[in-house]
Structures are given as structure tokens and as C-alpha cells.
Amino acid sequence: MSCYIRSPTLALYMGLTILGIILAFGLYATNLRCSISNIQPTSHGKTWWTQREDLSRKRSWNVESPERLLYKQPSATRGGSDVMAVTPWLAPIIWEETFNPELVDAIYKPMNLTIATTVFAVGKYIRFLGEFLETAEKHFMVDFKVHYHIFTDQPQEVPAVNLAAGRKIFVHQVPKLDRWQDISASRMQMIQTIIEEQVHREADYIYCQDVDAKFHFRWGAETLDRLVGQIHPWYYDLSRDQFTYERRPESTAYIPSGVGDFYYIGAMFGGTVEDVYRLVKKCHENIEADKAKGIEAAWQEESHLNWYLLHNKPSKVLSPEYMWDDQRGKTEVMRVIRLSQILKNYGEVRENV
Ligand code: GAL
Ligand code: MN
Fold first, then answer.
1. Which residue of 33, 119, 149, 294 has the smallest Cβ count within 10 Å?
2. Protein residue whose Cα sits closest to atom 4 of ligand 1
3. Is 190 in contact with 182 (CB distance < 8 Å)?
4. Residue 233, helix vs strand vs coil
5. Among residues 274, 277, 275, 266, which one has the least CA distance to residue 307?
6. CATH number for the domain running over 96-349
7. What are the binding positions for an alpha-L-fucosyl-(1->2)-beta-D-galactosyl derivative in this chain (predicted)?
8. Cα dist. 145→51, 52, 118, 328 in Å?
9. How far, in Å, from the CA of 134 to the mean position of ligand 2?
């Protein structure tokens, strides 16, 4: 042991090294303190956005399963179905038989979540609201706390519907716009506004749906995730060059040919409040930028949604079971239809063609 300090040069080197280590640690610790205090604003000065971001960082993603729940053993080699159940970026695609509903409920129900949902019942579309709400009470997030946010120009026409415990309706009055294209495109901005004004305080997740639709079957907690897109029922079996993306390079929603994952439907998107907020804010900004140049994207907010989800991949993708279209007969791949757009006479329900 003493042999190490016998040489004075060695002792000097060792002393310098130790001093160096102490100095380096001191500098590191000072920096560390600074960067921590920099990213921790006082709770007094916090905006709702930083509070939500803290919440999403703290949120526990543990998948806790009850001890004695019995369910079918999953196979490591055979999928429950012959459909594609995962995207190339490893997000699950939700089809019947890819999940166990009892197990999903047993995991998510104890989390005490509140799910906000938005529908737009403007002009003649108010006629669809009653059936949407009545069927939602039977199939949509049953036994969860649900806040229905209804945007309408006719608050007095919102039907009285019996809601299960923990479920509420909020009515937001909006102006009646003349063109259905404008009603459709303005949804991004209105969803942004209610998240800022109310939903950020009250809900964990938010799902945005079309009102001209009806639930038929379970639409449950298997859909919950950070950012969720829904495959359009008319395009799940077509090539990407047949997708009705916005094809003009002047538009912010432009998607060139040879590019694209899925064609997502504008009638359903969702996720955590933070992620949906980022989505609607960006789409709203892009819609405004296009408007300033006199451009309206091919399918209004649906085109902007497709651009957003191409560049910000969804963490979960819903199969067409979650928003079918009754104009298309049930195809072979569809085991169940959970929600579908009902048949309607466009000439009768739209103010313009
Ligand atoms: C239609 C649908 C429209 C739009 C369009 C896209 O089937 O009704 O809302 O999504 O497809 O091509
Ligand atoms: Mn619709």
C-alpha cells in the first residue's frame, strides 16, 4: 500500500487527479441544479399546458391486471385473427379478437379515467344527435366517466337522454356556417378552444367523432392511447395512390404520390388531451395558412389530419370496425361493426352541395 505514495511524482499526479475529479463534480452539480430549477417553474406561474405536460410525464403506464382474473391463454406464435395487427412502426391495429375485452376492462376501469368526446350537430345534423347519444350510452366506454361535448347552433334542440352515472353532457353554442365544408374545417379550431377553456381540467382522453353515426357493439377502453387514428372504411383495401390525400403542393396538407401509411377518416380521431391538443392546433394553423392563400384542402380537416398522422405516427390505429359506413356492405374482413355512419340523403341534410 505504502509503495504507491513512495514516489513524489506519483503522489503529485494522484493529488491532481483527485482535485480534477472534485472540480468536475462541482461544476456538474452546479449545472444540474441550474437545469433542474430552469425546468421547474413555480406552480403559481404555471400555465395549464405545462401542468398537463407534467401530468403526462407522471402518468403511470403500468398495466396492472387483477390477480384472479381468468382468461384465454395468448399464443406467442398464432394471432387471434388473420388481419394485420401491428403497423410497421409497431403501433397496434385494433380488430375484434386481437384483444380480450374483459382483461382490457379489468386493467383500465380502476384507473378512474374521464373520457371527453366531441360531436358537431350543426344545422340539420341535429337530427342525428338523439340516436348517437342513445346508442353511445349502450356501447361507448360503458362504465367509464364520459363527458359528451356537443357543438350546436340549436342548444334548445339537444334531446334529453338518460345518462348512466358519471356521464355528462356539455352543450357549446356555435354559429351556423353556410357551407358544410366550413362547418367541417372549423372543428379543429373549436376542439382546440374547448381543450384550452375546459377539457384540460376535466378529462384524460378526448375522442372526436361525427354525429351522423350509430353505435352497434362495444367501443371500449381498447381504443385508449396517446394518439389514435382510424382507418377509413372505403380505403383500407386500396393502394396509397388511390387515397384521396391533398395532392396540390401549394397546400400545407400536401402528400405526394408514393407516400402514405393509411387513409385516416376525419370522422374519428382521439388520444390523450395533450396529444389531441397538439394535433388540432397544428391542423388549425395549417387550415388558416391555406385559407390565406385561397386554398381549401380536398377533404377539409380530414386532409390536414392525414398530413399530421403521416408525420406524427399514431400510437394506436383503429380498424374500420370502429367507424364503418353503412353505404358500404359489410366486407368479409369485418367480424363486427361497432359504430357506423348511417345512410343519409346528402341533398336533404346539407345546406349546400
Ligand atoms: C367518403 C366520406 C367523406 C370522405 C371521403 C374521402 O366516403 O363520406 O367524408 O371521407 O370518403 O375520400
Ligand atoms: Mn359524417
1. 294
2. 299
3. no
4. coil
5. 266
6. 3.90.550.10
7. 232, 244, 302, 325
8. 22, 19, 14, 32
9. 18
> DSSP 3-state assignment of 246?
strand
**Amino acid type, 105:** D
Residue 205 near ligand 1, beta carbon < 6 Å: no
3-state SS string over 48-60? HHHHHHHHHHHCC
Catalytic residue among 137, 246, 301, 302: 302
- Report whether 210 contacts 341 (CB < 8 A): yes
The C-alpha angle 169, 174, 177, rounded to 5 degrees, equals 135
For residues 316 and 90, give the distance between their C-alpha atoms in angstroms, rounded to a whole number: 9
pLDDT in tens, 42-95: 455 578 999 888 887 777 667 888 888 999 998 888 876 789 999 999 999 999
**Distant-in-sequence, close-in-space partners of 136: CB < 8 Å, separation ≥ 6:** 117, 146, 148, 215
- Distance between CA atoms of residues 287 and 167, nearest Å: 33
Round to whole Å and give the CA distance between 82 and 68.
30
Contact residues for 198 (Cβ-Cβ < 8 A; gap 6+): 170
What does the alpha-carbon distance between residue 53 and residue 50 come to, in Å, rounded to a whole number?
A: 5
Indicate if ligand 1 lies below 6 Å from the C-beta of 244.
yes
pLDDT at res. 2: 42
Please provide the distance, in angstroms rounded to a whole number, between the alpha carbons at the two ends of the chain: 93
Q: What's the 164 CA to ligand 1 centre distance in angstroms?
A: 33
Give, for ligand 1, the residue of 232, 247, 328 to mutate: max count of ligand atoms closer than 8 Å to Cβ.
232
Q: The whole model's pTM is what?
A: 0.85
d(CA 100, CA 242) in angstroms, rounded, equals 34
* Domain chopping of the chain, boundaries: 96-349
Ligand 1 and 344: CB distance under 6 A: no
Give the pLDDT band of residue 39 (cuts 50, 70, 90). Answer: very low
- Kindly give the distance from the C-alpha atom of residue 350 to the centroid of ligand 1, in angstroms, as a whole number: 15
